[in-house]
Amino acid sequence: MRRLDEYDPTLDEAALTADEAATRALLARWGEPVAVAPPRDLAVRVLASLPAERQPATGGPARWPRAAALLTALAFALWVALGAWGVLGNSMGPARVAGGPDGGLGQLLLTLTLAAKPLVNLLAAVGPAALLVPLVLGAGAWLWWRLVRGAPLAMRSEPGR
Amino acid sequence: MEQQAEEAALVRRAVAGDQSAFAVLVQRYSGAIFNQAYRMLGDSHEAEDAVQEVMLRAYRRLESFDPARRFVTWLLTIGSNYCIDRLRRRRLAWLTLDDVALWLSSPEPGPERVALVAEGRMAVQRALQALPDAYRSVTVLRYWHDLSYQEIAEALGLTEATVKTRLHRARKMLEAAIGGDGEIPV
């Protein structure tokens, strides 16, 4: 949008006033601007579609899925990182940082590290090709979603039906 | 100013649960939102959907309405956001249901369409649709809704200078599209 909004040095107040008048004259030549008549029962239909009980938009439900997705992605990345630590270094490494494998947190980290190691080994063995599968699946799902969600269900017509 | 105070009172009543207060605002401004959406989207069915969606969003967000602003400006802001979002999605919809429903015959143009074409207004509508979305929104708000530069800037989250620049460029494009010898461009 930067190019569209590029500053025009010739645009001073006088030019703007002239612009305004020229545009209004141009539109007037074509009988515009005029208000297009909406369907007569539009307001009634809008009112009928409103919920009986007003539920203010809190932003909570809309924000939650995004936050949940971010948290899930972060947790997955951490899990894979633990696995990578176990494969490249020592499986006990993360547990030792948490005070050793005897403690509760240490045991949890050790379990997670050991559970992630097969995944890291698989990724290392198959290489970047393994990453293509979720990528293709994700792209396909996104494409399907955009096509279905954006497809207009109404036929085009003129106002004032 | 009196109307602004009256509308602020209506909003307060609606927030308190009085749906009849909001009904007054819907009756008053459905036409304005319909017009904005029709100019922006170029389709009356989509414009009707837009009115429903904009009014529903406004109804749910009444608490965020600032009584220092005009209610119609606030509604038009929601309308602009809706239309721009809708246009973005439309660009991504490469395959529409219309494209695959080849067996459906297109509806005959009604007398209103014929009248509009005859009067040249469709030419303006086409010229508007040919403008970039960013230019179209400022043009519609300025010339069809008579919003000030400041109100447009607030509504679209722009600076006044940007609004002026966009209006200036939009005028040049409109001039190129419909500023010829008065013949209706096809």
Shape of chain A: elongated
SSE string of chain B, helices as H and strands as E: HHHHHHHHHH
- The percent range for helix content of chain B is over 70%
Which structural class is indicated by helix and strand composition of chain B?
Answer: mainly alpha
Our count of domains of chain B comes out at: 2
CATH hierarchy, class of the largest domain in chain B: Mainly Alpha
The number of helical runs of chain A is 6
Mean pLDDT of chain B: 83
Low-confidence stretches of chain A: 152-161
**Oligomeric state as shown:** heterodimer
Radius of gyration of chain B: 18 Å
Number of helices of chain B: 10
Extended strand count of chain A: 0
- The tally of beta strands of chain B, per DSSP, is 0
Descriptive report:
The complex is a heterodimer of chains A (161) and B (186). With 161 residues, chain A is an all-alpha fold. Chain A has a domain of 86 residues. Chain A is built from 6 helices and no strands. The C terminus of chain A is likely disordered. Chain B has 2 domains: 95 residues, RNA polymerase sigma factor, region 2, helix turn helix motif (Rna Polymerase Sigma Factor, Chain: A), CATH 1.10.1740; 80 residues, Arc Repressor Mutant, subunit A (Orthogonal Bundle), CATH 1.10.10. In chain B, helix 4 packs across helix 9. The radius of gyration of chain B is 18 Å and the shape is globular. At the A-B interface, helix 1, helix 2 and helix 6 of A face helix 2, helix 3, helix 4, helix 6 and helix 7 of B.
